[in-house]
Amino acid sequence: MQNLLKFIQIIIILISIFYDVKAKKVCYEMLDDDINDGLISVGDMILTPEQYASLFGNSSSMRRHGLAGSFRRWPNGVVPVVFEDGFKHSFLKRIKSAMRYIMRHSCVVFDWTTKITKKQDHILVKSGNRCASLIGCVKKGAQNLILNSECHKGNIIHELLHALGLLHMHTAKDRDDWILIVWDNIKDEAKFNFKKYTKQVSMFDTSYDYGSIMHYGINSFSKDQSSPTIIPLKASKKEKLGQREKMSEGDIIRLNRMYECYKEDDDQTYYYDEDEMMVDDFSSF
């Protein structure tokens, strides 16, 4: 009987190790052409060395690699898009729906109909083991947007906003005024996802946003999947950290100010509908 119990314990340990390794592989997986370009993976964000130095480096590197130069906007707000072959029609429809959602709330245009050359800057939507994107328009030619069937519509919007230049909310330089990071509850291999920016990133005259689609959830990367890793210090009961349902009002304002969409400082040009819901299932990460 004791031998049987030991055998069962060994099997359980082996299974847990297998899934832990598998999870790490998914978390850190990057495409070969991204690795060859010397890019750095920080969770679902793929950064150039200049961007990484701007966000997390020392003061000298920040002066050398200013944020304004590291996070390029797409010219005129037009983002050429090419889809890798092999996506199922239903998933391709989901991706385009996420793009249309952003276009409906901004002057940004995702263009997947115009033929382009390989040398032209564009997003190449590729299949991978996670949801991940570069930040802004940073590469010459194709830059990868990695998606798979587990990426729900809200996740795709999150990654598209990265591709447009928006960063995570919970790592803002002033985040300690708004949230408490519970480091002891975070998986060791995921702690880099909570590293705070060393330089203030422009919020385009908006405040810290608990409801942002770019914010992590309360138990994101929790060791036991339930203990909190982020505790809000000022949030109301209405605000849901880590929601992947829709862009917050702040998200819409920041995106439109970034791309200078508003006319004569009219922040109502692309309005926020509090009652708007997207018909899809969602998950935060």
UniProtKB/TrEMBL annotation:
Cite the Gene3D superfamilies for this sequence.
Collagenase (Catalytic Domain)
The record's listing under SUPFAM superfamilies reads: Metalloproteases ('zincins'), catalytic domain
Which cofactor(s) are needed, names only?
Zn(2+)
EC number from the UniProt entry: 3.4.24.-
The answer to whether the entry has keyword Secreted is no
Residues bound to Zn(2+) are 158, 162, 168
List, in alphabetical order, the GO biological process terms annotated in this UniProt record: proteolysis
* PANTHER family, per database record: DISCOIDIN, CUB, EGF, LAMININ , AND ZINC METALLOPROTEASE DOMAIN CONTAINING, METALLOENDOPEPTIDASE
Descriptive protein name: Metalloendopeptidase
Please name the source species: Polypedilum vanderplanki
